[in-house]
Automatic annotation (TrEMBL):
Keywords: Oxidoreductase. NCBIfam families: AcAcCoA_reduct, PRK12824.1, PRK12826.1-2. Belongs to the short-chain dehydrogenases/reductases (SDR) family. GO terms for biological process: monocarboxylic acid metabolic process; poly-hydroxybutyrate biosynthetic process. Pfam families: adh_short_C2 (PF13561). The lineage of its organism: Bacteria, Pseudomonadati, Pseudomonadota, Alphaproteobacteria, Parvularculales. It comes from the Bacteria. GO terms for cellular component: cytoplasm. Residues 3-178 form the Ketoreductase domain. This is Acetoacetyl-CoA reductase. It comes from Parvularcula marina.
Length: 241
């Protein structure tokens, strides 16, 4: 049976590339988006996937949309927790809403999305959960206490859930991309970006397609012995243990 893959933030940026790649790999792909319906519609037309609106920071919306997907498309075999935002600022100037939005969207979302699908995966003895973390969750980043905390939290979540689900045919892994050429990075100051590229041994930004390639690899049935891992994908910028 054709496997179903759900990608949060699956209609733009890295998520778009992941949806496209998984579609090419033969999955029935569902892309979730937050508010950008225009991008979602464009994505449906371009890569031929279904899309649903869902605010991943809202547990009720996640439960509802996943029930709808299971009903309309089928049980979820692969879940890619990719949606994320930044609200940067020095910690001594950070406001409550900056902290909360980033933790809710980047970290609570993993609970909100994974909790409703885990029983089904356990019952069917198969599942692939792939969490998109970040280099900045591994090493920290000036101005990103909120984002670094959320992305490091995702790595802890990945490891603990991997232990709990290993006997059930479910793997849980994280990918920690470095700087990837998407809107999120295009929004950065040009000088800051130049200084970042200068610190990347490979000498360039990564591409969304490269991240999608790692997702495809982890989602594959043959990757069943890899669980609890974090794949660093950063052009050598930070070589973690
Ligand atoms: P983009 O800003 O290009 O896209 C973000 C995606 O997340 C959009 O599809 C957006 O939906 C969705 N999203 C945001 N908030 C919500 C929400 N509350 N509910 C549902 N969906 C939401 O980001 P990138 O593609 O650059 O990043 C993707 C992931 O990769 C993020 O988790 C990011 O932290 C991580 N990452 C990115 C790096 C980079 O260099 N770009 C580096 C390391 C990690 P909509 O289209 O509706 O707005």
């Amino acid at each position: 049976m054709t496997k179903v893959a759900v990608v949060t933030g699956g209609t733009r940026g890295i998520g778009y590339a992941i949806s496209k790649r998984l579609k090419e790999d033969g999955y029935k792909v569902v892309g979730l988006y937050g508010g950008n319906a225009e991008a979602a519609q464009k994505c449906e037309g371009e890569i031929g996937i279904k899309t649903y609106q869902c605010d991943v920071s809202n547990a009720d919306q996640c439960r509802e949309v996943l029930a709808k997907i299971e009903d309309e498309v089928g049980p979820v075999d692969v879940l890619v927790n990719n949606a994320g935002i930044t609200r940067d600022g020095a910690f001594h100037k950070m406001e409550d809403d900056q902290w909360e939005a980033v933790i809710k969207t980047n970290l609570d979302s993993a609970y909100n999305m994974t909790r409703p699908v885990i029983d089904g995966m356990r019952n069917r003895s198969f599942g692939r959960i792939i969490n998109i973390s970040s280099i900045n969750g591994q090493k920290g980043q000036f101005g990103q206490t909120n984002y670094s905390a959320a992305k490091a939290g995702l790595i802890g979540f990945t490891r603990a859930l991997a232990m709990e689900t290993a006997r059930k045919g479910i793997t849980v892994n994280a990918i920690a991309p470095g700087y990837i050429a998407t809107d999120m990075v295009a929004a950065m100051d040009e000088k800051v970006l130049d200084s970042i590229v200068a610190q990347i041994p490979v000498g360039r930004l990564g591409t969304p397609e490269e991240v999608a390639h790692a997702v495809s690899f982890l989602a594959d049935e043959r990757s069943g012995f890899i669980t609890g891992a974090t794949i660093s994908q950063n052009g050598g910028q930070y070589i973690a243990a």
